[in-house]
Amino acid sequence: MKFLHARPLLCTLALLAGLAVPGAQVAESRDLAAIREEQALLERQLLRLRDTMEVLLARIEAEGRTRTAELLREGLALLQARDGAAGGLTLDERMGEVRKALEQEQMAQSLEAQRRLVDDLDRLVSILLDRKNLEGLEEKIQNLQALQAELEGLADRESKLVEETAELRREAGGEELRNLEQSLDALAQRQRELLERTERGGRESGTLELEQLERSRAALLAAQRTDRAVLEGWKPEAASALQPAETALEAAQRAESQAARLEEARTRLERSAQALESGSRPAGELAEELRSAAESARRDANVSRDPAAEATAGALERGRAALTTPPAGADPARATAKALREEADALAKAAAEARAQAEARRKEAEEALSKAQAATPGAGLEQARTALAEARAAGARQGEAQKATERAAEALERARNELEFVGQALAGSQAEQARQSESLARGLEATPQGEEAEAQAAQAALARAAEAMRGASRAAREGQPEAAGQAARQAEQALEEAQQALEGARTSAARASAETNRALAEEQAAAAQAARELAARPPQGALSPEARQATRGALEEAAAAMQKAAEDLAQAKSASGAAEQRRALEELASAARSAREGVRLERPEDRAQAEELARQQAEVKRQILDLARRLQERETPRSRPDLARAESQASAAEQSLEQGDPAGAEENEREVERELRQAKSELREEEEQYQRLRDEEQLFRIAEETAELLEGHRAEMAAVREVDQERAGSERLTRAQKLRLAAIARKEAALGTRAQELATAIEAEGSKVSAGLLANVVSDLQRIAADLTEEGDYDTGPRLQGLQRDVEEALTWLLEELKSEQTRRQNEQQQQQQQQQQDQKQPLVPDSTELKLLRRMENDVAHAVAALRELHPDLDEADEYPPELLRELTRLAVRHERVTQLFQDLRARVGVEAPSED
Predict the structure, then answer these.
(1) pLDDT in tens, 779-793
(2) N or C: which end of the chain has fewer CB within 10 A?
(3) CB neighbours (10 Å) of residue 881?
(4) What is the pTM of this model?
């Protein structure tokens, strides 16, 4: 919420705006001296206001409150602006001119200038209260409502197109197709009723749950058999048999790496010799390259302590020395090249030895793998042997042999991991299956047959299975394959025993509902026969051959599913029967869809109607495109509904209609309608967000205005008490006291005017009780203003001060409830959003808060009546009442009548019926 939180500043500004009008509306009998004094006071207050705004602006900018700072700068700009229509004067300079005009008793000129000042001060109040923002929110809400109305209209128009297209499809299909659709609908409804009865009967008899438990037990038994087979073949010691092969492969990898290192250095020395002999590169450049390579090789040799790395570094260092200091002789380049080749030949010999060593190690690994594989077959070991065979076939192709050796090592590592972790995996699997077995036992206990002998036997078997599974889990975790396998076999046997007991329990349950199941099976068989008859005579009409075939096929599948359901029901298999019944429903829906989609428009009149519908669809599409453009062009929207799919589906619907495919068009039209309503829903959510912001802003401003009214009224209450104390013991007022009371009366009357405006605003928001409370405040302030003047004999006594306290109390009540509502909205955003989603707009102040205020108002009237009775004990017996008492009684009667009417309105709004007159 954007609002200037500077109450003293706004109070000053409100006082300026409120007092300028009374100062301008001067009666001829008014003392001009007092008015000039008030005008001078306004001038000084305006200057103080400007200074306060400048100081506040610096602080607000430092706090980073950009919107508030923007409002202050805009307000200062208005204060400093020079009005050309007023002689190029600023606002404070124009205040001074008004004061001078009053001093010269130029009343008409002063009055006009004051009116312009009031307008400018109102503009300043609007800026600082950010009224433009509130108006902007209301404008956004109105725009969103207009867009929603357009979307709703388009959606309704599209819905009508759906109905007309569906009617066209039915008419084009002919009588036979309409009869088929009706028969399919009736058969589907019949099947749904049978499914509902099957499920209900299965739940009541317990066969449905028992059959589900049987299926779960069967799945558990299958998993247990798998675990048992793995446990029986599990040999934890097999992992140690892989160690020789792993050691040999590691040695082969090291040898291949050494050979690669030596071969790389040999190649480098050979290239250097060739370049030196050909003269393509200078010896210095070649020496620098060998120096860099030799330093890198030396670092590797120092770290790895590898003989091959040491040999590589030495050869490169000697080659660099030969290039740096050529041998003496007639042809130093040739001699240096010869020295480089000698070093290269030595490295080649060492590389060949390393490769031979790698091959020998691979052979050792292959033999070790053969032994391990004989004891423990596995895919990982076979992959390792295949990779070693590839390395042997690579022979001198060093790079390929090295890669194949690495693949063999990786496969061997995977095999070891599988062997090492199989025990943990089996332990976890057995523990989980034990939990499932216990869950099955609990589920069986909860069935209607849970107390019967067969069910209890099944529960006991499932409990034994769970206990054996836990034993298998412990043994597997501890690496005891024999114990784990034995426990797994025991669990498997217990599950088989549970199956027999479960079948007995289900048979027993079926006997109790045998008659019901028999009736269901017969009805289901009759439905299957009806489906077969429909399949035997599909309509010809306007259906395409493909559609007729698809419809027949779906009906045949539905009939088969129905027949299978009948057989299952006859065997008291409620769950299986229900599953087949659901499959039959799916096939019936498929048959209806095929029949619907197979209609083609053959008659000229049908095609003409389709062309007209296509034209209407094209118009809807055009409007969708226009609306989509306007939605995208909105400034800073909180949502951007995408109508691209709606436009695409509208195009598809138009094309389907032009091609004579009403079913396809109907489906696309439904999608268009759905997308349009979805877009409307998104805009509705955005509107609700703006509405919440608008309500929060309005609530904040009303609370601020109420606080200012209360503060201003309290100041006048203090002023009245001062005057009352000054006049104590004196029957006549001084002129100064009369003038002061007149000023207080004007201020209280001005507060009453503001309270009336506030009451009107609150009532417009649907909060009638709060508005009624303010209406009481308005009438009291008007009476106070009148009693403070000659009309009321300048009353400042207990009666008038009591009225002022009533006003203070009412404003305090209202302010408390407004603040409470602000807090509630902040703390209960989610609940408020749900409330905002209701179709009926919620009042600014909720009904619960209004009810609290209403109760306070009623209690206040009751207390006031009680106080009057206490002050006037003879009230019921008196024939005449003093005027003051009559006025007070009239006031209380009006308030009571207002409370009664407000209560009736609130009761009607919340839907509470009025009590009967009986």
Answers:
(1) 888 888 888 888 888
(2) C
(3) 13
(4) 0.49
